[in-house]
């Protein structure tokens, strides 16, 4: 508490991201990619002429937006970029969700959404997941300021197919439907092809997961030019440079190497399946996942105890200390060797 803070600041409860430990641990807690960025990214960084940093970056990030437009078969005017999808989401909340009605979101979803609601004074109404821990798309109804959900969902991992998303969009035309596709590249279906028929659909994505560039903070949104203009208006009132020069150039290099991207995302999905089988064989309940993480529950031990014992073994996973999620652990998919170490450690702990 401070007398210097604006009154609203006292009420804020900031999002606390997963720990970034200093000591060397097997880090399976923030859904980073075990593969290095594409080789072209290394070339960009090695050959970068430091002298160029005197200049401002391109305020339009045009070349990156054009590269994304090619990747998703849309026009550059339908693409927005920002510092990680967290920032893109924040700008979208300001641009689209400040209406006099509640924002609809799943009860269990990315925990940044409620943080932004508090930050921007947006009322929220949460929709319970169905009995199989899936986002209940039919539950989105009634008067609202907009809809936000992740597809596939985090931290549960289930993704809806395009047909179900289409059905939702047919019912929802008044306000913006924001689909956060941070994890869609690991087996989910992207809603980008639905944008042409739905000017109220905004899809966000990130280079932090399938492109192995979490450290550079590159996020994007794809939607009608009307929505992109809304985001531009908010962004330019705040910081007219969406990304730094290095992020722009590295992002372009990451998109350019399609084979490497395919290789890495397929490898992550294969490791996910090996890990799922091993965990199930040990007796864990593992929710179906179309992401680069698994959401798992032990039928015998409190998740908090397994979390602590794994940490003793030098392995960091994610445990959410909330009533609903208390029984689960979220385990990011690391390398095959890291997942093997996880399985061995769980065996030594006697977890099942
Ligand atoms: N959406 C979801 C569902 C996430 O889990 C994350 C990663 N924590 C993000 C968005 C943000 O990713 P970034 O800011 O790194 O693009």
From TrEMBL:
UniProt entry tagged with the keyword Amino-acid biosynthesis: yes
Domain Aminotransferase class I/classII large: 24-346
Catalytic activity: L-histidinol phosphate + 2-oxoglutarate = 3-(imidazol-4-yl)-2-oxopropyl phosphate + L-glutamate
Cofactor(s) essential for the protein: pyridoxal 5'-phosphate
InterPro entries registered for this protein in UniProt: Aminotrans_II_pyridoxalP_BS, Aminotransferase_I/II_large, HisP_aminotrans, HistidinolP_aminotransfase, PyrdxlP-dep_Trfase, PyrdxlP-dep_Trfase_major, PyrdxlP-dep_Trfase_small
One Pfam entry name: Aminotran_1_2
Key word Cell membrane present: no
Keyword entries, A-Z: Amino-acid biosynthesis, Aminotransferase, Histidine biosynthesis, Pyridoxal phosphate, Transferase
Modified sites of kind N6-(pyridoxal phosphate)lysine: 209
GO annotation terms (biological process): L-histidine biosynthetic process
Lineage: Bacteria, Pseudomonadati, Pseudomonadota, Gammaproteobacteria, Oceanospirillales
Pathway the protein acts in: Amino-acid biosynthesis; L-histidine biosynthesis; L-histidine from 5-phospho-alpha-D-ribose 1-diphosphate: step 7/9
Gene Ontology molecular function, alphabetical: histidinol-phosphate transaminase activity; pyridoxal phosphate binding
CDD domains in the cross-refs: AAT_like (cd00609)
Domain of life (superkingdom): Bacteria
Family the UniProt entry places it in: Belongs to the class-II pyridoxal-phosphate-dependent aminotransferase family. Histidinol-phosphate aminotransferase subfamily.
Protein name according to UniProt: Histidinol-phosphate aminotransferase
Membrane-spanning ranges: none
Enzyme Commission numbers on file: 2.6.1.9
Subunit structure: Homodimer.
């Amino acid at each position: 508490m401070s007398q210097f803070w604006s009154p609203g600041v006292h009420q804020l409860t900031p999002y606390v991201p997963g720990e970034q430990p200093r000591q060397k641990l097997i880090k399976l807690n923030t859904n980073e990619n075990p593969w290095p960025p594409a080789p072209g990214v290394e070339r960009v960084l090695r050959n970068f002429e430091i002298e160029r940093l005197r200049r401002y970056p391109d305020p339009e990030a045009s070349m990156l937006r054009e590269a994304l437009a090619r990747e998703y078969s849309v026009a550059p005017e339908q693409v927005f970029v920002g510092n990680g999808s967290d920032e893109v989401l924040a700008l979208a909340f300001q641009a689209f969700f400040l209406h006099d009605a509640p924002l609809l979101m799943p009860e269990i979803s990315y925990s940044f959404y409620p943080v932004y609601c508090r930050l921007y004074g947006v009322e929220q109404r949460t929709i319970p997941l169905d009995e199989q821990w899936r986002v209940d798309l039919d539950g989105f109804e009634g008067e609202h300021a907009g809809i936000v959900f992740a597809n596939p969902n985090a931290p549960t991992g289930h993704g809806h197919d395009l047909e179900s998303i289409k059905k939702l969009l047919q019912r929802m035309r008044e306000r913006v439907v924001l689909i956060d596709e941070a994890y869609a590249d690991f087996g989910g279906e992207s809603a980008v092809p639905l944008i042409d028929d739905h000017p109220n659909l905004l899809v966000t994505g990130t280079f932090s997961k399938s492109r192995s560039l979490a450290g550079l903070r590159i996020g994007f949104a794809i939607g009608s030019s009307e929505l992109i203009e809304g985001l531009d208006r908010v962004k330019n009132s705040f910081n007219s440079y969406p990304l730094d020069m290095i992020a722009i150039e590295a992002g372009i290099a990451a998109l350019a190497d399609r084979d490497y991207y395919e290789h890495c995302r397929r490898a992550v999905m294969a490791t996910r399946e090996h890990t799922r089988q091993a965990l199930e064989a040990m007796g864990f309940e593992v929710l179906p996942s179309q992401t680069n993480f698994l959401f798992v529950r032990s039928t015998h031990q409190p998740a908090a105890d397994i979390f602590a014992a794994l940490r003793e073994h030098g392995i960091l996973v994610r445990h959410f200390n909330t009533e609903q999620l208390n029984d689960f652990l979220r385990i990011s998919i690391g390398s095959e060797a890291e997942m093997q170490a996880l399985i061995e450690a769980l065996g030594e702990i006697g977890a099942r």
